[in-house]
Amino acid sequence: MIANQAASLVKTGLSSYEDSLDQLAGLVAENLQDKKNMQEIEAEIRAVHTRNKTLVAAYYMDFQTGKLHISSYAKLNLDVRDTDTYRYLKANPKMQWLDVYKDKVTGAIMTSVVAPVFSDGKMVGTVGYDINLSTIGKIRAGISLAEKIEVADKWINKGYSVSVVLRIIGIPRSTYYYQKNYRVEEKKISEGRPAPGYSIKEDGKKVSDEQIKEFLLEEIAGDAFNYGYRKLTKVLRRNYKLNYRS
Asked: Cβ distance 168 to 136 under 8 Å?
């Protein structure tokens, strides 16, 4: 049930934007085909932006003139044909999620999704959304790390940006790759028997190896990302009162 919630969370966070942007691309293409003026196209973009509060901006990049038509309005002195977005779409003219970045003004964690606009079979521009990722993904509490990774794998394997999926699902990149690449070898005690699978806290309570692994992942995702074995052991003893195995 919770895993389904996680899958639904990512689907909502990705597919809803794609569906909306695909519709906007079709609408802009129709307006261009009907020779409507740019003011009418800008009005359509403003309407989409107004309806979706998670959008920081909605825009049309005109590859014929180099102009950017954006809502909320901003006067930017640039030729869109000099941007990475233009180069990405020229190389691969299909809907694309761009990488996660930090907005220099607000400090918000952002991403963008863009879709090409075609007229008479030729790519003439792109529509796009700038999205504040902190405004989506509010139901992540209660989803286990294993379930998050399972859902993240599903969407990453579909070709979505790793950084976008992990930001939505709520997994630090370091934790994701550590969990994916880390393989616990079966431990043996001196007599050759399997290890007991738990450690002892200072108060005598048992803590399972799986729980200790969760503690390690949390620490590695934070300040302990570059710690070695000895330092991590000290962190576990200090923060979680572990005496290790008796």
From this structure: yes
